[in-house]
């Protein structure tokens, strides 16, 4: 695990963008992408660059169950606004929050991942150490599934909604097993509220109580944190 401490999240986003560019120069065709506030600076660098993404495929980590693609809170909407509307990709995949049959949807998404093996996966980090929506206690060997969100995640994500009650209680999430299949991983985390999770991920035991700690076992993981998120290392 390579750890880069950046002065702030703008510098971190630029670094992440440069790593993406480097992988694309080396032939990467499929990017695994993430939502949340963390990757926003990286998306700004992607959007403002002259890099052509029109031959690229993206596979997103997760989506809220019950959220329509055009719902402002949906992760599909987030991706359109922050990246795809400005930098078109050849193909973009996000789980379908409105899928009628969760089992069929998770099967479909696992086939998407199998058909489009991820060259570089971008991850954020939950305050409780989650990656995607793989909350503490998640097994390390599962693929995409429908998962309940913990109270702590509902509370953390309430900032994007009018009321905490509006935060969906379930999501479709790539499993940790699917995430670990990607060739390379970049994980970003910013702010003091992530400092405990960052410490657990890098210095703690590998345990599913801190799902991100599993990344210690994978080659080719780059962690980019700001000084606040690195403050407990
Ligand atoms: C959310 C998402 C994750 C994200 C994390 C951190 O719940 N499912 O993919 O990485 O929480 O979010 P943020 O970047 O807004 O802190």
From TrEMBL:
Leading EC class: hydrolase
Pathway: Amino-sugar metabolism; N-acetylneuraminate degradation; D-fructose 6-phosphate from N-acetylneuraminate: step 5/5
Domain Glucosamine/galactosamine-6-phosphate isomerase: 22-222
Keyword Nucleus: no
Active site per UniProt: 62, 128, 130, 135
Cross-referenced InterPro entries: Glc/Gal-6P_isomerase (IPR006148), Glucosamine6P_isomerase (IPR004547), Glucosamine6P_isomerase_CS (IPR018321), NagB/RpiA_transferase-like (IPR037171)
Coiled coil: none
Enzyme Commission (EC) number: 3.5.99.6
Chemical reaction(s) catalysed: alpha-D-glucosamine 6-phosphate + H2O = beta-D-fructose 6-phosphate + NH4(+)
Alphabetical keyword list: Carbohydrate metabolism, Hydrolase
Chain's role: Catalyzes the reversible isomerization-deamination of glucosamine 6-phosphate (GlcN6P) to form fructose 6-phosphate (Fru6P) and ammonium ion.
The family this protein is said to belong to: Belongs to the glucosamine/galactosamine-6-phosphate isomerase family. NagB subfamily.
Stated name of the protein: Glucosamine-6-phosphate deaminase
Gene: nagB
